[in-house]
Amino acid sequence: xxxxxxxxxxSDVPRIGPNLLLWGTDEDLTKFGINKRVPxxxxxxxxxxxxxxxxxxxxxxxxxxxxxxxxxYLIRAGFYYGNYDGxxxxxxxDLYIYNKKWSTVNTSxxxxxxxxxxxxxxHGSGSINVCMRQIRKNEIPFISSLEIVPLWVNLxxxxxxxxxxxxxxxxxxxxxxxxxxxxxxxxxxxxxxxQGAVPPNCIVVPTLPDSxxxxxxxxxxxxxxxSESIASSNTSTPIILxxxxxxxxxxxxxxxxxxxxxxxxxxxxxxxxxxIDIYIDxxxxxxxxxxxxxxxxxxxxxxSVVGPKVNITLVPANSSTLAAMISAMxxxxxxxxxxxxxxxxxxxxxxxxxxxxxxxxxxxIALINTQ
Length: 371
Description:
Number of helices: 2
Distance between the termini: 28 Å
CATH topology of the largest domain: Jelly Rolls
Order of helices and strands: EEEEEEEEEEEEEEEEHEEEEEEEEEH
Shape: globular
CATH architecture of the largest domain: Sandwich
Oligomer: single chain
Number of strands: 25
Mean pLDDT: 89
Radius of gyration: 22 Å
Largest sheet: 9 strands, mixed
CATH superfamily of the largest domain: Galactose-binding lectin
CATH class of the largest domain: Mainly Beta
């Protein structure tokens, strides 16, 4: 967790979460906005407070400290309205990185937290700006959380450093949601693998993750994600998945697809094969053969797609004796954001946050020892 930055926007005091991550306050990161608690405390504590920005004249920006070197970061912004203002007026507003639009936040009728995540490579700037901008009258921007994770290893190797990749979906098929749970967590990079719905004519099956130490599967998917999959109920029926593209971005869009495949611990017969053709919007893109005790990762990039929906079809190849199966999928859209042009003036903030983390850890240890 070296260099991780977790900001509980709107909170007045730092805290350590149940997974031992430090959640700091945002007082050193922005000069704008007002803190507010939502009426009901949430399971995710960072969703119990917001910072809202009623003044359209303000920039409504956070300046987040980064390392002064070229490095890819996972950036995630979280939003939970929770009727914090008592108006039941679910706002829609724009989200920016630097001075370029990242996405549109639409909180209408959403009764749960929503997240926007991007993989963004910096070029030694030392900071990044994340901003909220009002686009509708009487609809006030707000934010609940910000998370920054430096990726010290080369995940998603086909992503170019001069583009930003905005997450559309990261789905765990067959299993529950998987998050970073602590120092021994199988998910090491603070990604959220959401629980996917089981499509019609599919069943959930246990699968055997890749237990070999080397080579590590591309993108290091957690074993808990790969230990359950969905499979078509028979060899004549494909798996049909759909992806809703961001409606606020121009089309066609350039997409980055990652498919994860594992196999059951034992096949019905030693002669059985599971070979899967991958189609995107009716066009065959790749053929993959699943193997026992091995994780197969298929990255397809660049893929030009046109919204609002992309259809993915997994079909058993002619030579396959077993039905199609999949464990997980990630989809990103490529967006063009200017690289950072700041300077390393935020190192003091980074150092203060790191120091606060260790002070809080020591305080917790001292409290435990006195009991």
